[in-house]
Amino acid sequence: xxxxxxxxxxxxxxxxxxxxxxxxxxxxxxxxxxxxxxxxxxxxxxxxxxxxxxxxxxxxxxxxxxxxxxxxxxxxxxxxxxxxxxxxxxxxxxxxxxxxxxxxxxxxxxx
Length: 111
Known about the structure:
Blueprint: H1 3-34, H2 36-46, H3 52-61, H4 64-95
């Protein structure tokens, strides 16, 4: 691995770690604002555990803090996936294995 590649991956990992710490703190703050019961309901909503009719009802009742909390959770998950990808890239490059396709480890989009 070239030194500049290592430096880039390390800086990316540090930035993602710092971002995730900030987002986790924001998530905790917002969960206190909305309450434990509402936070659990929003997590179930995000995982689509409700019937379509119930999802629409929850969607209509979302306020700013609810939407912000959902957004923070989505950003946390996205950053975790990026952090995992950076770690896998570093491991692959450290091993000197150019034959390994690191994109094979990427999670497929859930759409």
